[in-house]
Amino acid sequence: MKINFENTGKERAEQREREDEEMKLKYEEQTPSLKETKCLSFVMGENEDNKTPESLSPGKLKVTFEELERQRQENQRRQAEEEARQRLEEERRAFEEARQRMVNACFVHVVTQLLH
Questions:
Q1: Mean pLDDT computed over every residue of the chain
Q2: Are 24 and 65 in contact (CB under 8 A)?
Q3: Which of 15, 25, 60, 114 is the most exposed place for a label (fewest CB within 10 A)?
């Protein structure tokens, strides 16, 4: 039984390429804003005056997949921080309102006691 290792290696490489492409497509489907950013970076790259022949090659993007992922994570972190800040501010307001109601209730109670 003779195994052709060259064909097996090619098959594995092709399988790996297919899996990588499927993962990219799946990820892009899940993150539409990522697609928009890729398109925008590609369009912006075409409008620059200092083009090099290398930047004109088909399928070449100015922003890499890793950079886009880092930007997405950074935006997600900023959004989470902003939401946490807003929740904290709402809690502060609610606490201040409750404190003010307690002060008013105490004041009414003291005044009522003094009048009777």
A1: 79
A2: yes
A3: 114
Whether the CB-CB separation of 41 and 62 falls below 8 Å is answered with yes
* DSSP per position, 13-42: HHHHHHHHHHHHHHHHHH-HHHHHHHHHHH
The DSSP code for 63 is S
Q: Distance (Å, rounded) from C-alpha 49 to C-alpha 94?
A: 55
Amino acid identity at 100: Q
Q: What residues have CB less than 8 Å from 41, skipping those under 6 apart? A: 61, 62, 63
Distance between CA atoms of residues 71 and 36, nearest Å: 13
Q: Does the pLDDT value for residue 76 go beyond 80?
A: yes
70 or 46: which leads in pLDDT: 70
Length of the chain: 116
